# Entry
Amino acid sequence: MAASVEVGGGRGAVGVGRVARSFLQLRWASILLVAVGLAAYFTFSNENFLTRPNVLTIGQFLAAVSIITVGEVMLIICGEIDLSVGQVFALAPFIMYFTWNAGLPIWIGVLAALAVSSVVGLLNGLITVLLRVPSFVTTLGTLFLLNGFTLTISRATPVATPENGTRFAEVMGHNIYFELGWAIAVIVVMQIVLSYTRWGLYTFSVGGNMVGASEAGINVRLIKISNFMLTSTLGGLAGILESYRITSIAPLAGGTNVMFQAVAAAVIGGTALAGGSGTIVGGLLGALVLSILLDGFTLQGINADTFDMILGIAILLAMVMNVALQRSRRRGMA
Amino acid sequence: MKGDRTPHDLGQDAPNWPRPNRRQLLRGAAWATAGATIPGFLEACAQGGTSSSGGGQGNFPSHPKWKFTFVNHVTTNPFFVPTKYGIEDACALLGCDFQFTGSENSITSEMVNAMNTAINAKVDGIAVCITDPTAFDDPVARALDAGIPVVAYNADAPPGSKNRRMAYLGQDLFVSGQRLGQRIVSLVKSGPVVGFIATPGQLNIQPRIDGAKAAIQASGAPIQFEAVATGAQVNDELQRIEAYYLGHKDLKGMFAVDAGSTQGVAQIMQKYNLAQAGVHAGGYDLLDTTLDLINKGHLDFTIDQQPYLQGFLPTIQLFLYKLSGGLQQPADTNTGLLFVTKQNVGPYLKTKTRFEGSSDKQQVVSGG
# Structure
């Protein structure tokens, strides 16, 4: 169980060296160093990077993606993936809107949206587990299905978020502090779930050795389906928070962009694509690295045409650095 | 990315941490060199994408090299190539700098993030395509409160919106839709007509469909007008237009309100030789295929909204606002509406210019 590695350390003597050593033993230490290095670079090259407004803007880049990343980390650890989560991101706010538009209180709209999101996850899970369709294909299908469904029910037209300007809207993400609060709460709860609960341990077991897990009496299907439902529900939550942040519900929101960012963040943060290992905190740091890059290069004034090229080079360099640091860490532990 | 920060440094005090050998030190030095040079390389790349430096021309007093940020909904769309040339030329003329950023796929939250980052960077002016009815209200207000002038270009907030943008520079979209509708009535007279729209609800194109519908209704002509969505990707647009035509062969007219759909309509008109069958067609913007097929008689017209001016004029207006300390306020500007038909398409096809985005070469175009 990879989880046991992250939670130990620090016992016994207190020396700085020992603290540094136990820090570097953490799986996500290298990606944290990369994030700090990037932040240092942008701080050095642009005086407006390390200012309060810009740190909050990085938070805006980060919050929704990190919530979705949590779901993808859980799913990838247990050996599956969800490509449709970006479409749930777009659908959920419309479900909330239509429920509210039908005369029901807005909080029921939020619950309805999360319920529909989890049903999407249930469908993804059932098709993958019972019909044995690879999750890559299952969720590719639901990706298109949901995209078309959202465009149809919305008539492809954006609408204003309900109850804008109220305290409810602030709590639901219009205020960036609340959106970040939601993200932190999800991350803390799910890291605890992953590290200390049976669900978390079984998720590692299923991804690491499915046959072994099954023979040990773990309900493999239930674990997988529950992680599909978790990912979709978190995708829906992130979509609602983002719609409140920008005060508009748009049918083109999210999509494959936000999904790829979340999967990339999970993998950058140390989650093995083949399953069996990973951490939520690592996923958060992966999302942070991407957010710092997106914000930093925009802040520096890089134009759209060259942006992707520079972003690509930066991601490659950061990851080469990350792998080199990880190798040093392993040598140090040996 | 800082190559000079290695685990070896961090672990120096650790009793069991291995001491770096010569090979490791050399590798560390290589990382340090990479760390020092790569950001420089990236910076150089970045500067390659921004406008040229220089003090500008004319008799303006010397001024800081003001930087203006253009937030766009489809940053890599060919329609905006002339817009970028317009910004670039205005910046070279005035001794300013610019950034062209936003979203590649009309994702509003990415545009809002780009705008917030521009505010943090304390740029000197922002021009934004207001493609969503409400999402830009807050960022525009934040920019204005931070002392940054904001104008809308290409797409504007809907009438009655509380958006505080200082001016809109671009085509009067509803009026252009009305003119499109009047042209449809004069060409088609009666029967089923379709209007294709890439992304309904987006404020750069929806008002055109609304205007066309209103004009057709006002004319009282027995035309059954249906608006159909085609999607944001040019390839998809073509297939959806073909599928719609195959399911509705009794169409008397096929029109579109965005560049990609117009090109798709032109291609389907050509593929099935519909002009000869008496079907009329038209749309917007100056993609090469569209112009070529107008010349060959497959498309009746396209509407030029002068994208070059949509970059050039906002830059000039933001510059004057800065230069005059706010005495010169940005003013609403209609960048025009010109029907391009077989009669006047010649010059568009013959000359390749920055004004149409078909060439990046600076030149004096004769004629006109």
Q: What stands out?
A: Confidence is low (pLDDT under 50) at residues 1-20, 25-54 of chain B. The domain at 67-171+307-336 of chain B is CATH 3.40.50.2300 (Rossmann fold). The two ends of chain B are 54 Å apart (CA to CA).
